[in-house]
Amino acid sequence: IKTDVYSRNELSEYSGESLGRFLTGNTALNIKSYGAGGSLSSLNLRGTSSSHVQVNWNGFPINSVTVGSFDFSMVPSDGFDKVSVVYGASGALYGSGTFGGAINLDNNLKTEKALNGSAQVNYQSLKTINGSASLLVGNNRLAWRINAWKAHSDNEFSYYDYIKQCQRKQTDGDWHDAGIIQDAVLKLSSSSTLEAGMWYQFKDNGIPSRIGSTSYESQKDSTLKLYLAYKTLGNSWGLQIKAAMFNDEQGYWQKPSANSGINSVESNIAARQYYSDANFRYFIRHYLSLDAGITGSYITADVSAYGSSKEEKGLAAFAGIKYDKHRLSWQTEMRKEWNSNFSSGILPSFGIAWKLAPGKLILRANASQKFRKPTFNDLYWIPGGNSGLKPEMGYSFEGGISATLWEHEDSKISTDISSYWTQIKEMIVWRPAGTYWEAENYQRVHTAGVDAKLLFVTKQKHWQYNSSLMLTLNRSMVKTDSGEKEEVMIYSPRVITAWENRFTVGIIDLTLCHHFTADRFYDDNALLDPYQTIDVQTGVKIPFLKGNLGMHVNIYNLTNTTYELIRLYPMPGRYWSAKISYAF
User: Fold this and answer.
1) What's the DSSP call for residue 305?
2) Model's pTM, two decimal places?
């Protein structure tokens, strides 16, 4: 399956900013945001909805149990060793909610002698200041790392209100964010380790007013995530036993006026997730392995709109076989999930890769059945929740090619192209039902498209140039189960492109990024305009003491383009930032 992997070095360039901002700047993915800075940010992959992308931290899903999606403004860009974008991730491997794909956030700390760290402070012209620091210490027996960050923003910028026909300044979108991620690994023996991780974060933000109106809304989010794993290896086998606990809280308030002492709307959410997981791998031969595993879960949610606390118990079992010899690799898996409210049925998956010319040309294909379980809001919200909902079911097919088109000395041109087709049956939709809305298994979705990337790299004695052109083509069509005409999926552009150019000359670097997003429907009959933006970054990294001192300036939206990611939520025009950092 097509997978993009980003290392800690790449992620650290966005230290102090969110993963949503990193993905916006470095990919051709469909990132939706309800404003700038700390506003809710979600990801739509391959023409599906944000609830069809599963986000995992060290192998455990961390999507919201109430709405099913994930807020990428709540993820620090440099808190992980590796971030992977798995397009169209297999249902047999990942479970619920992967029609679009999966995002993996992994900490892979090693026991080795190390002492390094970094610190940075950044100021943006939106009246934003943020800072972060990290430290890693380790030896051959024990390693520990900490990453901490804090940000505050007034999030002020001017925009044109095309409904009220006047120039306005956003002054109610202020936010602040603080958090800490720690991970540790202890080598118990030459063949076994014990790993642990903690992620705590708090965010408080004012929800900005929409174009044409004034509102007084705010939201607070906090999360505590804990992770523990035991891993051991034998001569021909491996075993992992893992457990995790996630505690998420959210408060939302809306006032009738700025100075009101009462709230017209108030909502509080407390959700807890507990997971246990055991995976066993056995090598029949060095090229043939068997996998089997079982996962248990217990989830609770206390939401005022549910009337009472709700819980969900789950159990999943999976098995697979993998063959990898010479130029051929294939694997097949199957999975089944049992839940308090449903059973998934058998979820099979098969993938194959053929290295026609190792390192030069690889063909791949994958087929997978998938499902998505209803969220707690879908089942229990009063009014409108529907306890009789069925899981969304469907399948996807993908074919791809990775090829080196040209290579000479220190220069190379390569490409990766994937085409895909996905069907979702019984998609859950909230529809008008008299005086309120109700959740129903109502829609069928067909989505098809192409993901492509073209890379050019050349390195000379004193300089280096990297160019990356990314293209996403997609067509997503929706049809109701009642047989009504097909409609286009909202907020699903047919074309997204991203072109990044990076020059490095000695200690100086310069990066130019161009992004284009085509028009997209925000309801059945109305389109948001297409837009394009250009971002520029330049700076230096100077050897200093035992590390490097960095000084960089960014200019975002250089052409001062007016655009919206979500209808009626303004985005800033041209703005800038300046950052100073030190790493050793």
Assistant:
1) G
2) 0.96
